[in-house]
Amino acid sequence: MPKMKSHRGAAKRFKKTGTGKLKRAKAFKSHILTKKSSKRKRNLRQTGYVAVAQEKTMKKVLPYV
Question: For FRET with 31, which of 3, 21, 38, 39 sits at 20 to 30 Å CA-CA?
Answer without folding.
Answer: 21
